[in-house]
UniProtKB/TrEMBL annotation:
This is M23ase beta-sheet core domain-containing protein. Pfam families: Peptidase_M23. It comes from the Eukaryota. Residues 188-289 form the M23ase beta-sheet core domain. InterPro entries: Cell_wall_metabolism_enzyme, Dup_hybrid_motif, M23ase_b-sheet_dom. One of its GO terms (molecular function) is metalloendopeptidase activity.
Length: 355
């Protein structure tokens, strides 16, 4: 047993994104992180992922010369039994979340793990039914090499993409769940919102793509490759993507001319979604691997940019109100009002994956 498996007094972070446990390097809740040479793996032909059949430790190996991200998901244990034993040795169950894939609904636990070059991470110990026979464990994975972020450009600002609010910006630029690994998503914004919230065009333009047939949801890693979206080529020559929209909710079609503020679809939770949210990203071309560019929002009073962990509506940054129908919105020191508007009745990742 390696020294890196000694316990530490910390628990996985699961509150930010339900069911997801995130470790960018040596997070306090993992069992340990070591370079391969110190761990005794200097010359071995290593797998990407392993589960020790005796002590049930889940480990991931990065034998490359580059930083890599490992996204894993596995079925949670039976009710009443915590599926994982993390370094904190707590009796509380490790966080999981329901996930659907091809009509099957399961309790799933997901990991987003970033490892430096030539390193091994001991993540956790499996326990409960999953630990009885690790060879039959259902584990999904997606492994990518981290790419540098795209250039920080300025000057793009539009109308807000959701009706009502306020909405939590649950992931911002370089977000540690899914926005950090690819230039195509680095400057994307996620806004938590109830399923069925009206998704609005940020700018005048022409609809170039509508995907609305998928229904999978939750944190199964396979859901990275299933999503719905509406894409608009905007009047300034940029492409705006509105992702995770509800199945069969599009109010526009390919070729439709849209105006800023027009309803495009209803928000949803289709794809890899710890919570129901709208994912918005902006590109300078429609190439599949085109890097994302940062953008903000404008009102009659000026412009504002969104940061992860803060609440926003069309008027700007908001204080989270107890009553959703009336929240105080702060914009450059001014207090404005906003109201809710309802909309009626294991493999290597490819450019086809979407957060």
């Amino acid at each position: 047993m390696r020294a890196s498996r000694s316990p530490r007094a910390a628990r996985p972070r699961g509150g930010d994104w339900p069911g997801c446990h995130v470790a960018h390097g040596a997070a306090p809740w993992i069992l340990g992180l070591q370079d391969l040479q110190s761990a005794g793996f200097e010359s071995e032909d290593l797998p990407d992922i392993s589960i020790d059949p005796e002590d049930k430790v889940l480990s991931v190996f990065n034998s490359t010369e580059e930083e890599r991200c490992y996204c894993l998901s596995l079925a949670a244990a039976a009710r009443g039994r915590a599926p994982l034993h993390h370094s904190g040795a707590s009796s509380k169950p490790t966080n999981s979340a329901k996930s659907s894939h091809r009509g099957s609904i399961k309790e799933i636990i997901a990991f987003v793990l970033v490892l430096p070059a030539k390193s091994v991470m001991d993540v956790c110990k499996l326990r409960g039914p999953a630990a009885k026979d690790v060879l039959t464990l259902e584990l999904q994975s997606d492994i990518v090499t981290l790419q540098p972020p795209p250039p920080l450009l300025a000057g793009f600002s539009y109308g807000f993409p959701l009706a009502g609010g306020p909405f939590l910006c649950s992931q911002g630029h370089g977000g540690k769940l899914t926005h950090f690994a690819h230039p195509s998503t680095f400057y994307a914004l996620d806004f938590d919102c109830p399923v069925g919230t009206a998704v609005l065009a940020m700018e005048d333009g022409t609809v170039t793509e509508v995907r609305q047939s998928d229904t999978v949801s939750g944190i199964d890693v396979r859901n990275f490759f299933k999503w719905n979206q509406v894409t608009v080529k905007q009047s300034d020559g940029t492409w705006a993507e509105y992702v995770h929209v509800e199945a069969n909710s599009a109010q526009v079609g390919v070729g439709s001319q849209v105006r800023r503020g027009q309803v495009l679809a209803r928000s949803g939770d289709v794809g890899f979604c710890p919570t129901a949210h709208l994912h918005v990203e902006l590109h300078l071309s429609d190439e599949p691997k085109a890097p994302s560019v940062p953008f903000g929002f404008r009102t009659a009073q000026g412009e504002f940019r969104c940061e992860e962990g803060k609440w926003y509506a069309a008027e700007g940054e908001c204080e989270r109100g107890a009553a959703p129908e009336h929240a105080a919105c702060v914009f450059f020191g001014q207090v404005r009002s906003c109201s809710v508007a309802k909309f009626g009745p294991s493999h290597e990742a490819t450019s086809n994956a979407h957060p």
